[in-house]
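Page 42, continued from yesterday. The earlier attempt failed because a stray header line got pasted into the input along with the sequence. Redoing it now with the clean sequence only.
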Amino acid sequence: MAIGLDYTGDQELQNNDPASVKDILKDLDLLTPIEEIEKSKGLLTFKSYDEAEQLIKNLYAHAPKINKSLAKEKVLFFYAVLMNNDPEVKYATAIAINMLNGTIAETQEPLHNYPVQIYITENVYKELNTQFQDKYHSAVEVAGKVLHQRFSQDAQRCFIISPIGEEGSDVRKRADYVFETYIKPACEGTPLRAVRGEMMHGALVVPELMEALQSDPMVIAYLGHSPLKYGWNPNVMMELGSRLGSNAPCVIIKDVTSGGQPYDLPFDLKDVRVIDIPEQEGEELEHGVVKIRTIRDAILAGGIDRNQWQCLYPVATVDMKVGGTKDSASKYTEASKDMETLFEIEAIAGREILPILENLLEKMPDCQRAPFLHEQRSLITGLIMTGLGAGKIHATVPIVFEKHNTYQGRAFLPVIVRYSFNQLTSTLKLTVIYMDVTAITQLNEDGYYVCNLVGNNSLALKNASTTSTQP
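This time it went through. C-alpha cells are written below.
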C-alpha cells in the first residue's frame, strides 16, 4: 500500500511544513514497518487484505483525532492506494507512488467532509470477497489507472434483493453479473452504496435483513432469471413483498425473457413499474449504459431525496446500536435540511452519531455538556427498559449554543416523538425533533440550563366560558 499525506490541497503549506508519515502514523501501533519514500509518503507491505483493512479502519478512526489537535488551517488528509505485490513487476514502488500522486491530484470526494481517501487496483478488487467488495465503488479511471475508490463512511445503504444460489452455480453467476454490470454502476452518482444480503456481517441474518427492508432509504430487487424453468425464488418474493408492504421506495429489475420466452409477472406486480434487462450477457455497451441510466433515474425518482413532509422543526431519524461492535456504529438515517444549519454540518444523513455529538458538545458551554449527556443516556436507557412507557420520558436539558454562527445564545430541546426497539439486532430507532425553547430555558441552582415542557400543575380555567343546553 502506498500512503500519502496532504494539507487541504495547500501546496505552499505542504512544501514549507510537510507532515512526516512515520510520525503521524506512529500512534496506530502498526506491526508493519513503513518504508518512507518522501517525508509525506511511504509504503507498507501486508500479508493479506485483512491487515490492510485493519489499517484503513484505524485511519478512519485516527484522522479526526489528529485533525482535532491541529490548527484549523492545517487540516491533514490521508490518501492510500492498495495494489498487489507482484515480484515480477519492475519498478513497483514507482508505480505505486505515481498512482498515489494521481489520486491526490484527482480527489473525487469533498476534502472538508472526507479526510481519508482509499483506492484499490482492479486486480485487488477482483480477488476480494463480497464482504470487502461492497466497500468500494465501481471501477473508474484515475490518473490513467483503473481503480476502485472506497465509499465514504457515511454512504447510505441500498439493500439489494437478489437470488444468491450456491457458489459457482448459474444462479450465483447471473446474480453477480447483474449486480456488477447494472446495479452497482446505477448507484454511482447517488448517495447510495449497494449491499446484498451475503455482504451483511452480523450474526443474526434474518433480523438484519428485515431491518434493512424496513429502514434502508432504497431497495433494488432483481427477480432472477428463468422463472419458467425454476419458478420464482421464494426468498426474493418474500423480501420484495415485505418492502412493498412498507410503502418505501423500491426499484424492480427482471430479465426481459426467460430462456427466450416471454413470461408474466406475479399478479401483485403487474401494475408496478419493472425495468427489463437483457437476459443474455454481451449486449452492446451503449445499450447497457442506457439500462444503467434507466435504473439510476428510477432510484433518484424513487425518493431518496424526496421530502413529502415539510418540517416545522429540525428533525432526524437515528438508528442506535446498543452494545454493538465497532462495525455496527449508530448513525443518522434521515435528517431534514435545517438540521444542517442547526448542527453546522453538511449531509447529516448516513453519518455516525459520535463525531456529530462531539462537534455539538464543542459548541456548548462547559456547564451544559455533562448534564446533557447524562440525561440523554438516561432517556435511552428508559426507552429500552421494559415497563417504562414513552409518556413518562421527556427531556429537560437542552442543547445550548455558546458558539454558533446563527444560533449563539439559543437553546434547543431534543424531543423524542417516536421510537422502536429491535431486541434481536439491539437497534433503537428514534425520531427526534429539536424545538427552540430559549424563552422557557433558565439557569438552575446546579449551574446548568434547563427547561421543562411537561409539568404536574393544571391550568386554572377561571375565565373559561361554560355553556348549557335547555331541554
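Notes: Residues 252 and 269 are 9 Å apart (CA to CA).
Reminder to self: strip header lines before submitting.
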